[in-house]
Amino acid sequence: MLYIPTIGLEVHAELKTRTKMFCDSLNDSLERRPNVNICPICTGHPGTLPVVNRSAVESIIRVGMAVGGDLPMVSKFDRKNYFYPDIPKAYQISQYDLPLVFGGVLNGVRLTRVHLEEDTARLQHADGDGFGAKLERRVSLVDFNRAGVPLMELVTEPDIKNADEAVAFAKELQLLLRYLGVSDADMEKGQMRVEANVSIRPEVGSKNEDSKLLEKSFAAIGLEGKPVLGTKVEVKNINSFKAVYGAIQYELKRQAEVLEGGGKVIQETRGWDDVNQVTVGQRIKESAHDYRYFPEPDLPPLDLSRLDLKALKISLPELPWEKRARFLKEFGLSATETESLIQDRRAAQFFEEAFSEFKLEHRTPGSREIKLLINYLNTDLRGLLTEKASSWDDSKISPEHFADLIVLISENKITSRSAKDILRRMSESGLDPYAILQTEGLEQVSDAEVLRGMAMGIVAAHPQPVADFKKGKENALQFLVGKAMAELKGKGNPAVLQKVFRELLGQEK
Ligand code: ADP
Ligand code: MG
What we know:
Helix content is 41%, strand content 18%. The chain has helices spanning 54-66, 163-180, 209-220, 241-260, 309-314, 320-331, 335-342, 345-360, 367-387, 399-410, 416-429, 433-440, 448-461, 463-470, 474-487, 494-504, and strands spanning 3-14, 74-75, 78-81, 91-94, 101-102, 105-106, 109-118, 122-128, 135-143, 150-156, 192-202, 233-238, 268-273, 278-284, 294-295, 302-303. The strands form four sheets. Strands 1, 5, 6, 7, 10, 11, 12, 13 and 14 form a nine-stranded mixed beta sheet that branches. A three-stranded antiparallel beta sheet has the order 4-3-15, with no helix packed on it. Helix 4 (241-260) links the parallel strand 12 and strand 13 (268-273). The radius of gyration is 31 Å and the shape is elongated.
């Protein structure tokens, strides 16, 4: 039987503000010592009052502007009531009917809303030798460092058609949050968390009975041909892009099997078990009224006209999809090459700066030079940064010096082997490649006279490969060039060497 999958995502992201959502405790996701960044407000002591973090509100507004959502004039906070040890007030301050952003589109998926709330504390459970002590029973400890951290929640419409689209959406959202600088959005660190709502429905118009029944009931209520969605399951505890994919694929298959077996999918919350690669039933889904939402009495409604929306709009950087389109057009790169740069905003910036160095020298880099630029940036330069655990900001290699190095390579003044050596020295000294060449004598040997002298010696010493080459074996030439290169410690110009050997062996090309 054919089923049509329907997926909607709910994504939470911790905002990178200096302080927490409603108090001035530090918002530091890297703090490992428990209960260091806490105060009476984020630990929910009675008699304390929340104060809204302006920068968190502005972060959400900027996300809303980037996705083209509607910004209401007035927004407000609401209490979402429930008890759990990680929520000390027994309610979470969140937003219900007046979120900061309505609508918008990202990666072709319509957004329902983007709102602001506070993160919960973190629970740690242990028994036996846990927590460095002999425990007689299972113990749970609460770390409030994360309690009250500003949390963005973004909800999509059920527009997503398969697991691949869901992953692509989550990746593009992560990239957007990073470009905007509002969140590091690392899924493995829990800075970005995805919940997937998944349902299937039989394809209307197909021959199966379910489908006919559906069509009949749609018709009865005047919804001919309208897709009515199947019962959804919400999958939580998804901590990587791979898990987004795995959880959705698993759930689609599980639900199809339930329907095939004559059963009904029940609306519930399931958790993704990454070890066993299955979803596990957790609880029957609660609905909004279970939370007894009501307006937060300790916070006045937010009057958004008091924010400088123009300034916020101007503060938006070039967005990932804008940069992607421009790079494709402006630099004539392939989609893969473009993506390799777009995924890291600093790498893209470095590329552009190096590219414009060529222009400063009154020439436009040709396609070979652009390829060299990308390849050396993606492999050698990135490799060095990773090796030294340094960032683009504290790298000693300037785009200008990097462009100089690419020119040296493309003009065959240095071999790719010396280019790698020079790049390493550039990263250590901050010098330009010309200075390094002069002091180190790494310049490529391109002088045909010098190379001919050496080639004659090699021809005399290796009669067999010489004879092979004369019989038409091209490989034999590579062998001879290789010998010369070895003597030159890799500094010979391979093109000139080839030419010299061919001349010597009477086969000019
Ligand atoms: P709830 O009140 O249960 O949280 P919502 O209507 O707020 O449900 O939707 C939550 C998420 O589930 C949204 O991303 C929405 O697009 C998605 N969703 C709603 N109905 C379905 C469905 N039938 N199948 C898949 N996803 C759905
Ligand atoms: Mg929900």
